[in-house]
Amino acid sequence: MSAMLLEVERLSKSFGGVQAVQDVSFGVAKGEMVAVIGPNGAGKTTLFNMISGVIPPTGGSVRFQGGVINGKKPHELAMLGMTRTFQNLQLFSDMTVLENVMVGFHTRLTGGIFSAGFRLPLARREEKQAQEQAFSCLEQIGLAHLAWERAGTLPYGTQRLVEIARAAVSRPSLILLDEPMAGLNPQESKQLVDVLLAMREQGFTFLFVEHDMETVMAIADRIVVLDYGKKIAEGAPEEIARHPDVIKAYLGEEAV
Ligand SMILES: Nc1ncnc2c1ncn2[C@@H]1O[C@H](COP(=O)(O)OP(=O)(O)O)[C@@H](O)[C@H]1O
Ligand SMILES: [Mg+2]
């Protein structure tokens, strides 16, 4: 048996006649940072949504920590230790940064970000503990000084970091990031890269979908490349950068 934390096997999704993802297999080991890349329309979002329980696959399976998770909902996966961020920011803009990070516990414990929005009460002692852990998570990411700011007042790139802190606060076994670099300026991207690398040092495991090749090359341990729904390559960044099929797929996109 393989010791992979996440095992995606022949995962497929068709929408009517469109085969958005076809027989895609790969794994993520504990402590790894794996990226899924590919041109627009390659099937990245569809794959990501199947793994994170947003949509059911039409074929294949996903195993997480040894158990099949097909058909489980995002909040059930959160309780099992898989959390995710979204391509569009999902912070509560009127809440403080600290409160937003604490939502990560509510999501993990009670399931569902929406119930968390109603501030389901935790016991007082738990609340205090959650607050301390959220603060220490912000410290690790270098955002402790912003703990009491309203999230909505912060620059976009900083909000993205808060979102990642929220995904990480419950110490999940796997964090899924949906295009973490999207919309960030170069300085913010660099800051995010530093944060992700530091988190990997601390033992976090990541699977992320990303369009920005440069970042992926800089931080991923392994890259899975999709094109027209199929996996066309998998390997270390150096291998992927000079893989003829990958170059062709990306050049094709630039020509459009
Ligand atoms: N809900 C949907 N209904 C029909 N077709 C879809 C749907 N979602 C995605 N697709 C199609 O599946 C393919 C892959 O899309 P997507 O996963 O969004 O790719 P990417 O994220 O790599 O740009 C595209 O051809 C897209 O048009
Ligand atoms: Mg997409």
Automatic annotation (TrEMBL):
Signal peptide start and end residues: none
Record has Cell wall biogenesis/degradation as a keyword: no
InterPro entries: AAA+_ATPase, ABC_AA/LPS_Transport, ABC_transporter-like_ATP-bd, BCA_ABC_TP_C, P-loop_NTPase
One GO BP annotation of this record: L-isoleucine import across plasma membrane
MF (Gene Ontology): ATP binding; ATP hydrolysis activity; L-isoleucine transmembrane transporter activity; L-phenylalanine transmembrane transporter activity; L-valine transmembrane transporter activity
CDD domains: ABC_Mj1267_LivG_branched
Record keywords: ATP-binding, Nucleotide-binding, Transport
Name recorded for this polypeptide: ABC transporter ATP-binding protein
GO CC annotation terms, alphabetical: plasma membrane
Originating gene: livG
Pfam families, alphabetized: ABC_tran, BCA_ABC_TP_C
